[in-house]
Model the fold of this input.
Amino acid sequence: MAEARHGSAFQTRNIDTDDPGTTARLVGALDVQDANPGVRRLRDRAHQALGLRAGERAPDVGSGTGSQTRVLADAVGPEGSALGVEPNPALRTVAEERAAGGRALFTDGDALALPLPDGSVDVVWCERVLQHLTEPERAVAEMVRVLRLGGRIALLDTDWATTILHPGDPVITRALTSGALAGAANPYSGRRLVGQASAAGLVVDDRGSQALLQDHRSVAWPIIRLLGESAVRRGLLTESQRDTAYANLAEAAERGGLHMSVTMFGVIAHRPR
Done:
């Protein structure tokens, strides 16, 4: 991927892959997102619009723990292929372990230089990757390069500027939610997808969004701790302030009064013949 930015939790260079605790927190955050009903609804809409068929070739760019690579593999069947391209070795190991015995395959690779020939795939899936790139337009162009004429692409990404966290001291809450902006090289990615797809020569067929609401009765601790650690690291909060914020959020969740959300956008497009 492109140059990592300090605070970007998902960038390979910003993750100590030898630290099991760091990897566990990252995998935990991804698993929380995978389980979110809003994420599932947006994914379902994207898969329906893509209409994958048996025998198709479908790479998953930035495959993470491989949850969507496995879905792609099931959709294209034994005659097709689903390849997860993931630069983070710790995540790739988790993906391979979870896919053991299935048809999903995984390889090391960079979104800016996919290990695939020109025009060699039918469908590209790219979810929550562009937000981590300083040159997302280059990545979209690279995906178009490997896509055959008439091939389809799904771009799904978060717009971190839409993050809402309540309740809490406004100053501390702003410091926490700013970690969402600092944690991505391209934090406004969601709102830019349509323009990036069009600029790359793709025809936009469908677009949608989902507010990803966290459970109001429980704190999404893997995500909150990533935000809290980022705020402390950047000097916006002391450890004491962070811990107080954690306690306030936990208390609000016990009352069923927690609100945490961010909006995710999706674009389905095709490469014209």
